[in-house]
Amino acid sequence: MSSENPGPDKRNASFLRQLSMAMELPFVMVGGILVGGAVGYFFDRWLRTSPALTLLCGAFGFGIALRDILRRLSHETKRRNQGSGRGGS
Question: Side-chain half-sphere of 12: how many Cα atoms within 13 Å?
């Protein structure tokens, strides 16, 4: 009977969700920097402006990745507050 003890399943699901996010976020950060740097590198080779655009696009990729991480953490915090009955804003 699964309805006897719903607490551990809910905690387990929460732990797994947090673990998956913790494993995913470093890849989001590194991926954003690498994609931005690669785009900048190819623009540098095309326009012969090395390494200006590589650095600029890498920094842009870092900013986009940071924004995405903060957005994901904000959504997770709102979901956790709504699930616990605190009524997040």
Answer: 5
